[in-house]
Design brief:
The chain has 104 residues and is mainly beta. Helices cover 4% and strands 47% of the residues.
């Protein structure tokens, strides 16, 4: 017995929204002093910086970072590349919250 298949109904392709591009750029030339620059076109609000691992850090993180401005952070530890990450948190212009992880 041959089974007949029901005709396939093709659905229109739905476009997905474009991914949000991370607006940060890390300047590492003066390690262990880092600049985390807002390389985007929008002012970012609620900016905080945290470090996880065995390193210590000092940071001057303003709550608002305008395009072109930077957050300055100094990381001090025996081997940050091995066991430390920096996490930047901010709110995009649409109010969405983002976290971005930086490795050394």
């Amino acid at each position: 017995m041959i089974r007949r298949r029901a005709p396939r109904i093709l659905r229109p392709i739905q476009r997905r929204p474009v991914a949000y591009r991370v607006p940060w750029q890390v300047e590492r030339a003066d390690a262990p002093h880092y600049r985390i620059r807002n390389a985007g076109d929008h002012t970012l609000r609620g900016v905080t910086v945290s470090v996880f691992g065995t390193s210590r850090f000092r940071v001057a993180a303003p709550a608002v970072v305008h395009p072109g401005a930077a957050v300055h952070a100094t990381v001090d530890g025996p081997d940050p590349a091995r066991d430390t990450i920096l996490v930047v948190r901010w709110f995009a212009p649409d109010g969405a919250e983002y976290l971005w992880q930086v490795s050394f």
